[in-house]
Structures are given as C-alpha cells and as structure tokens.
Design goal:
alpha/beta, 9 helices, two-stranded antiparallel ribbon, Spore Coat Polysaccharide Biosynthesis Protein SpsA, Chain A, about 270 residues
Length: about 270
C-alpha cells in the first residue's frame, strides 16, 4: 500500500524517528511536507477565520494540521490507489505493522476509513459487524474517537471528505472521525483492534521530548489530566462523575445491544 507521512520541514528529529520505525519493517513511504503555521501571515489567519464554514476561530497550528491532511487527501484523490495510509510523524508503530501496511487485501470492500490509531479512550462500535483480520478485529465505529495520527482512507473517501470540508478548518480528527462531515457523508468507518499505532503523547509511561506536540496538544498527553486533578475535595466529585458515566454507558448498552464500547488497546 502507498504510505504518506506528514512531517514539517523543520522537524528533522521527528523525521529521523519515523524513518527508522518504517525502515525497521522494510516499509517504504512518501514524505509529505506539512503546512507550517509559522509561515501564515496575519492576513491569512484572518481570512481562514472569516471564511471557516463552522464559524469557529481555530488556532493557526490547528489550521495548518487541517490543511496538511487535506494535502494528503488531494494526493490520494488524484492518484490511482484504492487505499492509502496516512501517518503523522510522532507515532509508535506495532512490530507487526508490515503485515497490514504491505497490502490492502485484508481491507473490506465497503471500507472508506480505517482508524489504525488509539487515543486510549473508550470507543463505541457495532458488535454484530465486527470481523477478524489477521490477528486483530475490525469494528464499525459508531462514536467519535479522537486522533488523526494513523488511518487508511479510500480514494473515494478522500474525494468526499475534500468536498464536504472545503472551508472547514476544524480539528482534523473531528472532521475525519466525528459526526460531520464523515458521518454526514456516510463513510463506512472501521477501527482496527488492537490499534496498530499510538502517538507518543498518548502512550503510557515516559514521553520522548523530541516528539512533543507541535500544535499545542500537550494538555492531551496521557496522564496529564490525572496529574492536574485535585486530590482532596474534588476526589469525591470526580468519583461521582465517573459513576454517572459508567451508569449512562451501561444503560446505553442495554437500550442498544448492537453497540459495544471499550478502550482500544495498542499492540506494541
């Protein structure tokens, strides 16, 4: 399969990191020069804000990330490949990734998006539409799963997302895996379980400083929310909130037994 990796021209450390990860598995890729927010003029930023179809004013870094992924989609839409992998440059890759990335034969014919990444959050998927692929499972996603660091997209899916998000500069993972526009376009979206990759910031344990977020997402690093959580009076409040979430989840499962939900693991 064709593999595209998004990388800023000024992020040579990240390129070295991702290059080794893919070379170690004899995987070839194409580097896509990322759009750099530092290159935006004030006038360009104002124009993005003025013309954004959602009406929200995203930070320049989010807009640049959005445009970088759309740059890949245009390459895919104009290409000859039925399916193409898109990765960001701060991921850890499973040791058996080549089994999935070397060929598209395992991909269901109706798939238009396959999320290869996990954000270590609970994800809802259709229980009766789960299928085995090699040593993993594919489930049809029914809920938002954050993150855009690793996915497979079909040529038709790329064309449809480009059309639907022409002037939408929202966070790119919401565009791809949120309610709109992917769900609005009825793109058949699967989740690979366990995941094939994970961003360094969402991985448990120590973090690689060279892979720190370049778009201001440090607050989303795994463990950051726990570290900032008050330890005394708020503990009871957080426990009640957690209980309510579990209760709502169990009720939802009883009302809709076709839907299952679980935290997607990453297989190293």
């Amino acid at each position: 399969m064709r593999i595209l990796i998004i990388n800023l021209d000024r992020s040579s450390d990240r390129l070295n990191w991702i290059d080794k990860a893919f070379r170690d598995q004899n995987l070839t890729y194409e580097r896509v020069s990322a759009i750099d927010a530092k290159a935006f003029s004030e006038q360009e930023i104002e124009e993005f804000h003025r013309t954004c179809s959602s009406g929200f004013k995203q930070p320049p870094e989010e807009i640049a990330c959005n445009l970088s992924h759309k740059k890949c989609w245009r390459m895919i839409a104009d290409g000859d490949d039925d399916f193409v992998c898109v990765f960001e440059d701060d991921i850890h890759l499973s040791k058996d990734a080549s089994r999935f990335l070397s060929s598209s034969e395992w991909i269901p014919a109706d798939a238009e998006l396959i999320k290869l990444e996990t954000f270590n959050t609970k994800v809802a998927y259709l229980r009766n539409e789960t299928r085995a692929v090699l040593d993993r499972q594919l489930g049809v996603v029914k809920d938002f799963h954050p993150g855009s660091a690793g996915y497979i997209i079909s040529r038709d899916g790329a064309r449809r997302l480009l059309r639907m998000s022409d002037r939408l500069y929202a966070q790119i993972s919401f565009i791809i895996f949120g309610p709109k526009p992917s769900r609005a376009e009825s793109l058949k979206t699967y989740q690979l379980m366990p995941a094939l990759c994970i961003q360094d910031m969402r991985r448990r344990g120590s973090k690689n400083e060279k892979l720190a977020s370049t778009i201001g997402h440090e607050r989303l690093a795994f463990g950051a929310d726990q570290a900032k959580r008050p330890a005394t009076r708020e503990k009871g409040k957080n426990s009640r909130t957690s209980f309510r979430k579990r209760w709502k989840s169990s009720i939802s499962g009883m009302l809709n037994p076709r839907v299952a939900a679980k935290v997607i693991d990453y297989k190293d």
